[in-house]
């Protein structure tokens, strides 16, 4: 019985095939091994116990194995060298419990595989009484090479943090002899018994194993390499959209099946659709498909064609791109833990003093007028935010008009409640506001759009400089991982007032939101330098200039 599975629409990966198949008369005596890809698009191996995790990984990728390698849980030397042996032989690596505990998972998996011979490496006993024949070997490369007939590569020392990555990189044709950093080489000779030759199964060239690299997954990583599956580490995260390397791999190779290996994946809600998004290969400017904290956005704010609304419109498109890049460059030496991304925040609907033909006191710029700016920014590696000043209409209605732009992977959305009017209100007489229910309706609309198109995470930015602009913001729907939500404190004036506004707004935050800061060239007294801006506590994830 395979591990629990979840359907996912990911689809052919470049994987490494093994060697060591017997030939001629030897093939008749060779130990048999059979692999098969999981039945479902996504298989979850999320056992917290390393012994159970090793058995589940074997169950996901192997149908049978006359020979199996066994190491003892907690024996770093035996597990690492066992990984080298299993990868070279093309057989599963299983673990037996430390301290002689119950071995139900190990015994059950050996029985399911039909194992007749166990190679016990290091401290492992192999649980041989009444079961498979056990060939014991110390955790010494020469001893393992002698009993297996493998041509091992040079010994390589690895620490605990790098163990999973080292195993993932093993070459089945000549695996390195992995050993713990600083460990004394094990001595001794192989014990009694003979290990039969192993005929490798066909490699699982259409399967990718995704892993956080957590310790409990180490044996499973070796089993995946032994089966000929490609293994990709996520860097520790459980959201596949957060790894630029994984997004690139899935997009290029389009694997038919994916195995998520590591206990953390069990708690990652929506893993199936997140993998579907990653499998598109679409990357945000700066890499990956998650915005924060991986990215730090530096934006020019305004509307094309006019400098009256902000610095974005003070120059033509090529000059605006260069100006945005120059602003972003000022932050690159100051922000070491995120990728600095130049950004346009484009005012697409402009608050108007007159009702206009539609009576909503908002002028909607045509999509085709904005498209050259949006597309050129994307080609230049920039992010774009479409900003709405809706007047007397609602935000969802206006956002729908720009759906074709929001369906691009590098485009997010900003809501400006200052310009959201109630019946009978007019701009510059009243400061507008928006109900949290209307904001949450935008959350649902934009998240559904993002999910339906398998897009990278989108920014939904909420402009605010007074608490009453978004009453009850503590009820903001933060449940949709398709979006990165941000409150953008865009007040102007003296720095004492701006800092006070910043502190006040943060008292009403949901913890899940990111924060943005605006620098005004003319209205701030004085405008913060980049060094002073990144010193704001907490450091913003977006800085815009107007």
Characterization of this structure:
Helices cover 29% and strands 21% of the residues. It is α/β, with parallel strands linked by helices and 546 residues long. Strand 11 (207-211), helix 7 (218-226) and strand 12 (230-233) form a beta-alpha-beta unit. Helix 2 (50-61) packs parallel to helix 4 (104-113), helix 2 packs parallel to helix 7 and helix 3 runs parallel beside helix 7 (218-226). The longest helix is centred in the C-terminal third of the chain and has 17 residues, at 436-452. The radius of gyration is 29 Å and the shape is elongated.
Short synopsis of the structure:
With 546 residues, the protein is an alpha/beta fold. 29% of the residues lie in helices and 21% in strands.
List the helices and strands and how they pair.
Layout: E1 5-6, H1 25-29, E2 33-35, E3 42-45, H2 50-61, E4 62-65, E5 67-72, H3 76-89, E6 93-96, H4 104-113, E7 117-121, E8 133-137, H5 141-148, E9 155-158, H6 163-168, E10 177-180, E11 207-211, H7 218-226, E12 230-233, H8 244-253, E13 257-261, H9 271-279, E14 295-302, H10 317-331, E15 339-351, E16 362-364, H11 367-379, E17 383-388, H12 395-401, H13 403-406, E18 411-415, H14 436-452, E19 458-464, E20 483-489, H15 495-506, E21 514-519, H16 530-534, E22 542-545
Parallel strand pairs: 3-13, 5-6, 5-7, 7-8, 9-10, 11-12, 11-13, 14-15, 14-22, 15-17, 17-18, 18-19, 19-20, 20-21, 21-22
Antiparallel strand pairs: 1-3, 2-4, 15-16
Helix pairs in contact: 2-4, 2-7, 3-7
